[in-house]
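Worked problem 6 (solution included).
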Amino acid sequence: MPKPARYVCIHGHFYQPPRENPWLEQVETQDSAAPFHDWNERITSECYAPNGASRIVNRQNEIIRILNNYSRISFNFGPTLLSWLEANAPRTYRMVLEGDRASQKRFSGHGSAMAQVYNHIIMPLASTPDRITQIRWGIADFVRRFGRKPEGIWLAETAVDSETLELLADHGIRFTILAPGQCARVRPLAKSAAGQTTEPAWVETDAETLDTRHPYLVKLKTGCEIAVFLLRRGPLACNRL
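Solution. The predicted structure is:
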């Protein structure tokens, strides 16, 4: 009997804060990033660029294939980082966009790239107008770069509350990513039979007991819905200050 197919879902959250000197509008030399000029350059060399041209080797350590990882993983880039890449690492920037275009062919028209709230702010701590601005700017930046509307959006530090989910749904966002510890309880979807709807009982859960192999549907007070994927965090693939 053939073994069942197995899959793993990886999400890459790529973000760097703006490092430009506000007076010079340039990133100054950062000695700690040596031998590179600054940390944006170093992390691009060690992470962002290699993910766009990943070397697949055989047992003799010979390169047999070069793969754009962005075409096969779920990922998001912060708008401020994409702005820097566009100006300072155009080849890497193109690989990110090309990875999303290639992923749409593989995933039935759904691209790998997600949008991100624009300035990486903690959304539950922001005012409602600021949250709306962050969502709208994040969506607009994504559309300009990737040429399509985003289906999902990354929330900084996965910080969330009900109002933030409501605002995402209001702006056409269909899903976001959270951590397993943020889910308190789950239940199967309601079942209808003989004209009656049965609501299953809630089951308390935590980061250890939650089944993260499938998404969950959050039904909001306004009647909107949004899906959430609960992903476990792994080690960062790049240096970080």
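Discussion: Residues 235-241 have pLDDT under 50 and may be disordered.
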